[in-house]
Amino acid sequence: MHIIDRIYIDGAFVEPHGDQWAPLFNPATEEQIGTVRLADTHDADRAVAAAKRAFPAFSSTPKEERIDMLHRLHAAVAARGNDLIDAMREEYGAPSNFIDFSAPRAGNVFLDMAKTLESYDFRRRIGTAEVEMRPSGVAVAITPWNSNYGFICGKLSAAIAAGATMVIKPSEMSAIQTRVITECLHVAGLPEGVFNIVTGDGAVVGSALTAHRDVSKITFTGSTATGRTIVRTAAETMKRVTMELGGKSPSIILDDADLDVAVPQVLAAGFLNSGQACIAGTRILAPESRFKEIEARLREAVKDFKVGDPKDKGVRIGPMVSQKQWDRVQSYIRLGQEEGASLLAGGEGRPEGLSRGWFVRPTIFTGVNNDMRIAREEIFGPVLSLIPYRDEEEAIRIANDTDYGLQAQVFSSDITRARHVADRVEAGRVILNAAPHEPLAPFGGFKQSGFGREFGVFGLEAFLETRAVLG
């Protein structure tokens, strides 16, 4: 049984002032595996005070010193790769294909930001003015449960590079993972107070941090509904905000696409992280001229997506994070049928042979129109909607007919045509023919998927303020 009874403030593991405890579960077994003592508003104040004290000295450190810190952070995280894998598998139930990307990436984001920082010029001349980029101050990062240490490291790497100090509030549902990554970060030996990690309830600690008068920057990854609340609170003191929110991403299969490439990739994108991903490609747009063929291909290909115990390397879809999330996904599967869509694969209940664990059958609806709720609302589970379109114009219209705009995919045997379509898709990131990940490219959304960007130079500048000196 894991007992998590420490938070991290001012360079040390300390006892929280808060006295509330929350249970931790293994979602593959539904068994309680630990408890976490939650921080409170007093702890939030302590963490911000530590970051504020550290800011004057840290913001003045030379670029070379911060690059060295980033390399030390990478080394410390990389050294605990197996522990990070074990913690994510036990506490979150992510399948191996997701963990095998997430664990090394948590350390690599520090190297990516070090590379960005090496060539970044904090001072430049514009006409007769000297323009300088200055660290924004004390930043708050609020991170979700679906990629715990990846979000923590990604946001912290940008703050360190910029010279900003940070308070991180991770999800209380990820306390085991948080403990491991905090131990890693501590080993890197950064100055006291540069980063602080307080696990607590969003309504208590999250609210206290986003309203705190000594916080100048907020970076948040999570639901659009929570993002709206944070933005309203931040507006009271004009805090700078980066919001990475929900998505309902389209995967557009053009009529000339190679289905041997497209079909496995649209399913991989839709079922990414067991469907618990803001970037998941949950709307598959298929041309009417090849619709039956694509239906048949999807029906067959989905059989390759094994559901079960994440310890099994062959499993591609793990459990939902909680009973609450399982119930939510089941309600949407029922809703889809009530709305008149047909099940091409999957359906309600657990997959055959799984009597416990919050597992969902990988589900594909066909006969979906874009006005249905299953096509418009973020489900956050392995539930996909197959939507027909007549021609390229309609495909683009359907793709853009959403409140969201985080990511999209386009598949075509003609790369020029794929780029033409991508140019008209309203999304912060568009992937052509399953192109590989580019860690230095900006990431963020259009519309209600948020604003601001993370990673690379754009992520660095999200923690900087611009000042001009004339004369």
Automatic annotation (TrEMBL):
Its UniProt entry gives the catalysed reaction(s) as: an aldehyde + NAD(+) + H2O = a carboxylate + NADH + 2 H(+)
Gene3D superfamilies, sorted: Aldehyde Dehydrogenase, Chain A, domain 1, Aldehyde Dehydrogenase, Chain A, domain 2
Keyword Iron listed: no
Do you know which InterPro entries this protein is assigned to?
Ald_DH/histidinol_DH, Ald_DH_C, Ald_DH_CS_CYS, Ald_DH_CS_GLU, Ald_DH_N, Aldehyde_DH_dom
Keywords, in A-Z order: Oxidoreductase
Oxidoreductase among keywords: yes
Instruction: Identify the catalytic residues.
Output: E244
Q: Where is the Aldehyde dehydrogenase domain?
A: 14-469
User: TM segments?
Assistant: none
The catalytic activity of this protein is classed by the Enzyme Commission as: 1.2.1.3
PANTHER family this protein is in? ALDEHYDE DEHYDROGENASE, ALDEHYDE DEHYDROGENASE-RELATED
Record-stated family: Belongs to the aldehyde dehydrogenase family.
- What protein name is recorded for this chain? aldehyde dehydrogenase (NAD(+))
Q: What organism does the record attribute this protein to?
A: Mycoplana rhizolycopersici
